[in-house]
């Protein structure tokens, strides 16, 4: 089980006083302190772990966020930022002695600028709402995680979310132009904006994917794109995942960059089709959904080339969308794969690792071996174009042994990703889920360097502690010089 930082008993003893102090800083209705009401915030999308927060605050303005953070900084109180609570890595898991800072009331789109092709939104605006706000003028927001109907733009920034169209159009980091953020001491900063690349260090790039450890985002400027002239999707069924993986590799090797290239294995195909009736071939052991977009003539040519490559790799099923409704239905099955799996198992554990595309078949084979070893079912859905795997481990959380096996199974999948030359996460973040595996990917020097970056923003380690880093270091400890047998390192260097 995941261990969180030991609670500060002094803070726990002052819980009532802290709640009263917070109501002096922000309106009473923005502070939740009763035990029953706090339970609504005890978990995020990683529901295996639960912990009620000390107090919940739901500020309505940047100034209120600033006051709350400044107060917590002054009094040494930990803070966990939270968006929509859809994090699948436990990134918004509360702390017993911490303030949960929810951004759910920041849900306004502040500016739509078609001339500069951007939207300024508060962090509580859902991902899908951005596209809905601009589609009447033929624009859309490209990153589209499967949870886009619920996940927030602020959370997307924190976790660097992706989606089925990230292969061609990039992750959140490629589509965010600027943020307003509040540091733990209450300082309000602006990074980037509607203008081009800013001078100096790329602090905006540092913030995207920082998982709430460096600051709290209170405003986001995102890039919007004109909708393509034409978009078509094709379903391709294969007898094996190896053949589907080879097809993806051939598509990209031939200079074709699809808007999306998604794969599902046999179990995922069948549960998604039963749930959505998208037209998936239930007798296939692997399904590719490939979308091409651009001028109509170009799309037709690319569809023909993709079809030829799939046939060469043994495709046994092909179906091309004829209109936008049918294309949307193809994607509906993929985007509903997670809840579809939830219909056949009491609980499931969603993993998120990324591998080189050419290692897809071997890693899927390893996942099947691990499934047999742990005695737990698994369904695989993933962004095949960039090698981002999402195995769904099926288990029953009411059985502690199954939960333990699911955790070990997931950890072994992530180790297999790293051993294959990949990384621990593609878009869900590290959170608490992958925190203790960071040592499999980074050495001690690299982890300390990342810790020092956090210390530059958060000198007391109050923002979202217990996430990302396997060992909690005080900032002062990171700066200490190690003395071995009374000898300093490099004793010949002059020291001032």
Automatic annotation (TrEMBL):
<dbReference type="GO" id="GO:0071949">
    <property type="term" value="F:FAD binding"/>
</dbReference>
<dbReference type="Pfam" id="PF02913">
    <property type="entry name" value="FAD-oxidase_C"/>
</dbReference>
<dbReference type="InterPro" id="IPR016164">
    <property type="entry name" value="FAD-linked_Oxase-like_C"/>
</dbReference>
<dbReference type="InterPro" id="IPR006094">
    <property type="entry name" value="Oxid_FAD_bind_N"/>
</dbReference>
<keyword id="KW-0274">FAD</keyword>
<dbReference type="InterPro" id="IPR004113">
    <property type="entry name" value="FAD-bd_oxidored_4_C"/>
</dbReference>
<dbReference type="InterPro" id="IPR051914">
    <property type="entry name" value="FAD-linked_OxidoTrans_Type4"/>
</dbReference>
<dbReference type="GO" id="GO:0016491">
    <property type="term" value="F:oxidoreductase activity"/>
</dbReference>
<dbReference type="InterPro" id="IPR016166">
    <property type="entry name" value="FAD-bd_PCMH"/>
</dbReference>
<dbReference type="InterPro" id="IPR036318">
    <property type="entry name" value="FAD-bd_PCMH-like_sf"/>
</dbReference>
<keyword id="KW-0285">Flavoprotein</keyword>
<dbReference type="InterPro" id="IPR016171">
    <property type="entry name" value="Vanillyl_alc_oxidase_C-sub2"/>
</dbReference>
<protein>
    <submittedName>
        <fullName>Glycolate oxidase</fullName>
    </submittedName>
</protein>
<dbReference type="InterPro" id="IPR016169">
    <property type="entry name" value="FAD-bd_PCMH_sub2"/>
</dbReference>
<feature type="domain" description="FAD-binding PCMH-type">
    <location>
        <begin position="49"/>
        <end position="227"/>
    </location>
</feature>
<keyword id="KW-0560">Oxidoreductase</keyword>
<dbReference type="Pfam" id="PF01565">
    <property type="entry name" value="FAD_binding_4"/>
</dbReference>
């Amino acid at each position: 089980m995941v261990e969180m930082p030991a609670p500060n008993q002094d803070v726990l003893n002052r819980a009532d006083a802290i709640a009263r102090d917070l109501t002096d800083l922000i309106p009473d209705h923005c502070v939740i302190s009763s035990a029953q009401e706090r339970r609504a915030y005890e978990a995020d999308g990683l529901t295996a772990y639960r912990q009620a927060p000390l107090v919940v605050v739901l500020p309505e303005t940047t100034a209120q966020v600033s006051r709350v953070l400044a107060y917590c900084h002054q009094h040494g109180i930990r803070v966990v930022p939270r968006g929509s609570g859809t994090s699948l890595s436990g990134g918004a898991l509360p702390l017993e002695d911490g303030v949960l800072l929810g951004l759910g009331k920041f849900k306004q789109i502040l500016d739509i600028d078609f001339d500069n092709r951007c939207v300024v939104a508060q962090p509580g605006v859902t991902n899908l709402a951005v596209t809905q706000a601009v589609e009447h003028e033929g624009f859309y927001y490209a990153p589209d995680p499967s949870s886009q109907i619920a996940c927030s733009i602020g959370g997307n920034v924190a976790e660097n979310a992706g989606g089925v169209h990230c292969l061609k159009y990039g992750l959140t980091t490629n589509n965010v132009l600027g943020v307003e953020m509040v540091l733990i001491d209450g300082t309000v900063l602006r990074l980037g904006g509607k203008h081009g690349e800013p001078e100096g260090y790329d602090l905006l790039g540092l913030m995207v994917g920082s998982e709430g450890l460096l600051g709290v985002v209170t405003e986001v400027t995102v890039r919007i794109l004109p909708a393509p002239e034409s978009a078509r999707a094709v379903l391709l069924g294969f007898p094996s995942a190896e053949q589907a993986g080879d097809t993806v590799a051939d598509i990209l090797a031939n200079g074709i960059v699809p808007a999306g290239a998604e794969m599902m294995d046999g179990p995922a195909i069948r549960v998604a089709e039963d749930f959505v009736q998208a037209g998936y071939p239930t007798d296939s052991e692997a399904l590719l959904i490939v979308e091409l977009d651009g001028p109509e003539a170009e799309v037709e040519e690319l569809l023909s080339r993709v079809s030829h490559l799939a046939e060469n790799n043994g495709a046994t099923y092909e179906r091309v969308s004829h209109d936008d409704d049918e294309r949307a239905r193809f994607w509906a099955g993929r985007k509903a794969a997670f809840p579809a799996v939830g219909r056949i198992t009491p609980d499931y554990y969603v993993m998120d690792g990324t591998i080189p595309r050419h290692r897809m078949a071997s890693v899927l084979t390893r996942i099947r071996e691990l499934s047999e070893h742990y005695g737990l079912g698994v369904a695989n859905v993933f962004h095949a174009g960039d090698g981002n795997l999402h195995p769904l481990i099926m288990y029953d959380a009411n059985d502690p042994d199954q939960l333990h096996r699911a955790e070990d199974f997931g950890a072994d999948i992530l180790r297999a990703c790293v051993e294959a030359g990949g990384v621990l996460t593609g878009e869900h973040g590290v959170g608490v889920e992958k925190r203790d595996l960071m040592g499999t990917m980074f050495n001690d020097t690299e982890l300390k360097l990342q810790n020092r970056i956090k210390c530059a923003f958060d000198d007391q380690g109050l923002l979202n502690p217990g996430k990302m880093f396997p060992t909690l270091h005080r900032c002062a400890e990171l700066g200490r010089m190690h003395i071995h047998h009374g000898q300093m390192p490099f004793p010949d260097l002059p020291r001032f």
